[in-house]
Design goal:
The structure is a homodimer of 141-residue chains. By secondary structure, the first copy, chain A, is mostly helical. Helix content of chain A is 65%, strand content 9%. Chain A has a single domain, classed as Arc Repressor Mutant, subunit A. Chain A has a 3-stranded antiparallel β-sheet. Chains A and B meet through helix 1, helix 5 and helix 6 of A and helix 1, helix 5 and helix 6 of B. The structure holds a DNA duplex (30 and 30 nucleotides).
Chain lengths: 141, 141
DNA sequence: CTCAATTATTTACCTAGGTAAATAAAATTC
DNA sequence: GAATTTTATTTACCTAGGTAAATAATTGAG
């Protein structure tokens, strides 16, 4: 039996997330995408056109991260950036091509995710989700 | 009640890990360290002198990642790199200064980690650890 | 209406992680 | 023992995330 002091838990957490991200990117490479880019596409497919601020607030990352990733995605034909009415902001929307590819990539991602958690029952997955939510400096749930 | 399909779980997982890493780095900045550097120091304090291969295999990252991080750590006076008997390999050891600072940083890290999981009982933490271990492409435990 | 404050985005500079290919030294094979 | 293969590390080039400071446009105060 292993010990599960906080150090072991955080160590394992980092290792697992690195492994997941690596595998995830590996799966997505067939589609010319990276994990972070997919999360933006998913977001845009779900909510429709969004400003950059909408995106980084939803994904909980900093603004420059989104600027950079969108620049790459625009270059690779995934998104279009247009100026909003408020001329400070940029409206982001998926290209036709991105929209067409969504369903196929989504299925691949879904299958990958299912595979990653196939060692867990759905009850355990639910538990895991709730425990994960409890982590944080304010002990919030 | 939220849904906890796989997408929500992985989304939350990434967000939580980003948040944890950010907070962790924030705590460590007082000591002039980053999370990854600390994990190497911890490792060297625990196992003593190691080769770079020992380190990246233990931490489950690729070799170039360790090369880079050790270069910074050497520059900042945390480690010394000497040539091993096998002249291909580099032996890494903590500097006196790093060794001296270990205990203090370790306490700060410990307190930070305790704070992050204070919303969980020790039973829940144990459960979380075991559930986390179940994630993976081979469904291994 | 003008000037100060706020807001959205970007730029510059940092760490961390990955892959592929290059070295260099050791181990193996013939 | 020379040539091939393996192993340890590095280099070059990529994505992703962060902070601090710079723009640029809008809002608000007076």
């Amino acid at each position: 039996m292993q010990n599960f002091d906080t150090h072991s838990v955080f160590h394992l957490l980092h290792q697992q997330v690195r492994m997941i991200t690596k595998e995830f990117n590996n799966q997505l490479s067939d589609h010319g995408l990276y994990h972070s880019q997919w999360s933006i596409i998913f977001c845009l497919e779900k909510f429709g056109s969004m400003t950059q601020t909408d995106i980084w607030k939803y994904l909980n990352v900093e603004a420059p991260t989104i600027t950079r990733t969108l620049t790459r995605m625009e270059k690779n034909g995934w998104v279009i950036r247009t100026q909003g009415e408020d001329r400070r902001e940029r409206l982001i929307e998926l290209t036709e091509s991105a929209h067409e590819k969504f369903k196929e990539v989504n299925r691949a991602v879904y299958e990958f995710e299912q595979d990653m958690v196939k060692g867990m029952s759905s009850e355990e997955l639910k538990q895991f989700y709730h425990l994960l939510k409890k982590i944080g400096p304010k002990g919030e749930e």
